[in-house]
Design goal:
CATH architecture of the largest domain: Sandwich
Distance between the termini: 21 Å
Strand content: 35-45%
Number of strands: 18
Number of domains: 2
Helix content: under 10%
Structural class: mainly beta
Length: 256
């Protein structure tokens, strides 16, 4: 499969991608009922660390990301959730705490403001100390996966095959977007598995074809997978990504 993507299509795809992610914007803040704030500093010097991705996964509104500013500060607004898992990520950094979780006693929605600070230690090369589940991004305030057709750069619902692809293999390729999904020295794509589950709890394996960083966005990884023909006739699936024995949050996809 090969098809030339023009610069204009690349620009439109990038614009669409970031329109679907809520990255600490004022619009997101207006929709928030619960806000997490904090600061990331160097563990040795106490100096702020900028460019750290703070990724939070709400059990009702999905995943979103905030990026620390020059002072190391971040603000991450959420809608109604009863549980939020939080993690900080930056390439070549070990962040402490490794993860955090905020839960509401009694199952009531979280509200107000909560502060979580992180410290980081830099390394001159990528290093894996604690295997953590990748964070599968979702559309803003949604459990729907942030996904695009890898050739057409369109959103779901996705067909199992796409006649717009060049070559004989017409099966649709999807781009999924993740935080903290890297390959380390000696690792290959074989450590990554992507699984889909339909409404009848039948499972399907999606073939992993490529993993790369999104240009000029070092905290964001793009994973390309191929839809299997067995998904023909299925209209809704839930997808997870696993690596090193750790499984991501689940996100929904629509098919046609």
């Amino acid at each position: 499969m090969c098809k030339i993507t023009t610069p204009s299509k690349l620009f439109l795809a990038s614009a669409l991608l970031f329109a679907l992610i809520c990255v600490a914007s004022s619009v997101c803040a207006q929709q928030a009922t619960f806000t997490i704030t904090g600061r990331v500093t160097d563990q040795s010097t106490g100096q702020p660390i900028s460019g750290v991705a703070i990724a939070g996964v709400g059990n009702q509104t999905g995943a979103k990301v905030a990026i620390t500013d020059a002072q190391g500060n971040y603000t991450l607004p959420f809608g109604a959730n009863t549980d939020i898992k939080l993690r900080a990520y930056k390439t070549n950094y070990l962040i402490n705490p490794v993860s955090a979780e905020i839960s509401s006693p009694g199952g009531f929605s979280l509200f107000g403001t909560f502060t979580t600070n992180f410290t980081g230690s830099s390394f001159p090369f990528p290093i894996l100390v604690f295997a953590q589940p990748p964070i599968l991004l979702t559309e803003d305030s949604s459990l729907n996966a942030l996904a695009l057709d890898s050739v057409e750069q369109t959103r779901d619902p996705f067909a199992i095959t796409n006649d717009g692809y060049f070559g004989t293999d017409k099966r649709t390729r999807l781009q999924l977007y993740l935080v903290d999904m890297d390959l380390y020295s000696g690792e290959t794509l074989s450590i990554i598995t992507v699984q889909a589950v339909d409404s009848q709890q039948k499972t399907y394996n999606l073939v992993v074809e490529d993993l790369r960083k999104v240009t000029d966005t070092p905290w964001l990884s793009q994973l390309t997978v191929r839809l299997p023909s067995e998904l023909g006739g299925v209209t809704n699936i839930t997808v997870t990504v696993s690596a090193r024995g750790q499984t991501s949050n689940a996100a929904k996809l629509r098919l046609k």
